[in-house]
Amino acid sequence: MAALDTKWFEALRQIHGPRPVQALLPRVDRYRQTSWSLERLETVATQLHALEERLAAEENNRLLQQIYAAVIREQLIKTELLQAALQGEGERFRQANQKLYGTINADLWRTCVSYLDDRLCSDSLQKETSQSDELHQHFTNLVGLAHPVPLVERLPSQEVFKELRQEYLRLPEVARLDGAIPHGLHTVAEIVVMCRELVAPLGYKVVWRDAAVFRMRVAHNRRLVIILGPASAKLKSLRVKGLLCHHEIGIHVLRRVTAEKSPILLLQSGLDLFERGEEGLGVTAELMVHSHLNSALASRRVFALVLRYYISGLIAGQGGAAYKDTQVTTAHLESLFLAWLSMSPKRSDADQNALIARQQTAVMMASLLRGMGHNTQGIYFGRPAVYLPSMISVMATLSRKEMTWPALLYGHFDPNRTLHQEAVAYAQAHLLE
Predict the structure, then answer these.
(1) Are 353 and 342 in contact (CB under 8 A)?
(2) Is the pLDDT of residue 157 over 80?
């Protein structure tokens, strides 16, 4: 099978455009926002413009021309984002950030406020204290007279959720991953061993790095699954299945491996803005470990996604000018983590809760303040905020049967975008020829 886009794929790969999530340093001072230089960014921009002209002049296939033109435009925006960070141009950074990751939807943000109010201030979840009273009043003030749509009403019904879950878990690749994690608590060392056994057949390796908070990511260019976390941590099998088997391997790795057999090579590196949909798909797959939608919504994973979106909105100004201040928002976020931790009977030690809250806050704020957020009020890095709205959109796409689970694994693309759906259908048709 011959690839349809070898010339453009190789030309784009040789340019080595920036990836903001890696290029924007998570902990920076005012003098160093990114690992890139202005000279290097200008060279990349010049090369991208030249490739854009070549593509328009030489490519006759409408679909290939469209998907590559879109990726080139995305790379130019990413270049502009880093240039703005280096030159301290706040408004330019904000505009490029919005083009890449969208803006905070006011209605969804109010839904997040309502969710947090229910989770942290409900009588059934927490005894009435002055702290919970203050939080409840704070959330009420943010919502005002509005009546937000509950998060559960933005998602499929329990019947549809069950059907989607069954379809997903029936996939042979997914069933293999899901059945590989035994029930119980697992140390980080055990998780690393299990992960190596899972990804070895797919041509990937695993590395572990010590970190305060447990998380995972995939580096496709090095074919690595990177596990971060404290050596002493122990995780429940349900969380390991969700994050490792279904999100990182089941979506990110399997999509890449499947795309390597595609006649459209661009599906390996990703169509334009694919991260918006892929992360939502990853979270959707992650929640499939829960047999009931309400259990999924009550999970720590959904809580974290809602919290990210809520804090992003505060920084952007949804909660008033005061919360554009990084110190104010950081202190508020830490208080929310503390309130959440206090609800768990297994974490009753106040000093331990305070330490965990500080660690969780530091990790989340570092992800949101990449680039200019550390020293410019009202600016946040938008990628962490795409997970929640993308998850809602992906579930809607699946519910409407616009795409099936097998098709969703066919490379790095956003299932919510029509052009991407067309590209996947075109690639699959040529694969069968």
Answers:
(1) yes
(2) yes
- Residue 362: what are its φ and ψ, rounded to 5°? -60, -45
Distance, in Å, from the CA atom of 318 to the CA atom of 142, rounded to the nearest integer, reads 8
Q: 62-87 and 418-432 helices cross at what angle (nearest 10)?
A: 130
Q: Which two tokens stand for residue 190?
A: 């055990």
Tokens of 278: 């892929």
More confidently predicted of 25 and 337: 337
Give the C-alpha separation, 302 to 49, whole Å. Answer: 40
124: exposed, middle or buried (Cβ count in 10 Å: 0-12, 13-18, 19+): exposed
The shares of helix, strand and coil residues in the chain, as percent rounded to the nearest 5, are 65, 5, 30
- Sign of torsion, CA 322 326 331 337? positive
Return the structure tokens found at 290: 């829960």
Give the integer Cα–Cα distance in Å for 322 and 230.
35
Q: Are 289 and 95 in contact (CB under 8 A)?
A: no
Q: Which of 416, 83, 384, 60 is nearest to 272 (CA)?
A: 416
Q: What is the pLDDT of residues 209-265, one digit of tens each?
A: 988 888 889 999 899 999 988 888 888 888 889 988 899 999 999 999 999 999 999
226's enclosing H/E stretch is strand 224-228
pLDDT band of residue 1 (cuts 50, 70, 90) is low
Contact 395, 156 (CB under 8 A): yes
pLDDT digits (tens, 9 = 90+) for 323-336: 888 889 999 999 99
How many residues are present in the chain? 433
d(CA 118, CA 124): 9
Which of 382, 19, 65 lies closest to 218, judged by CA?
Answer: 19
